[in-house]
What we know:
The protein has six helices and nine strands. By secondary structure, it is an alpha+beta fold.
Amino acid sequence: MRNKHQSIEEPCEVKVSCTILKTSATGDSLAEFNTLAVMSNGEKAESPNYKKLDRKIRKLQRKLARQPKDSKRRNITRIKIAKLHNRMADTRKDFLHKLSTKVVNENQVIILEDLNVSGMMKNRKLSRAISQQGWREFRTLCEAKSENFGREFQVISRWEPTSQVCADCGFKWGKIDLSVRSVLCPSCGTEQDRDRNASRMIEKVGMGNRHDSKVRLVG
């Protein structure tokens, strides 16, 4: 029987990530935030589709703007909007709780990248979709559950070039546009999925920091 204190041999580190598509007609960025998290083992966590609820909310908000203030119909519309917002929030909360529990239960070490969510929210084309994902809530849940279950939880700096370095050979290809979803490494010739490669780099950086801290403690 396995010792209950024995650690898992292959810890899985997580990178919170998003997918940005680019429209060829106008060149405008179109957010398709279908993937909330990409694991270093290649597993992707697909977030719920909030589009239908979001369309209903937008439609009712336009209707609300046309209705007279203090009218009975306006108040009914306002209540409908609030109920839809609550439904979306409940759906997101349920998904994030289940995902964070799965990640913490299955792994001994969880490493996330510190995303500049407030900076990303300044992009008006993406802010609505970003706000629906709940990245900050996911990080908070992972951290709290890691503490409860005795897991190791780390957050690496947002300035680490995790999307700019090949996880196989270490070659640095530099910044690439968010519309580019895969990169052919000019050094080793490996075609890297952008998010999978970044999650593997987060694993390497996080595990390296973990090793360095142990060395300092021993010294």
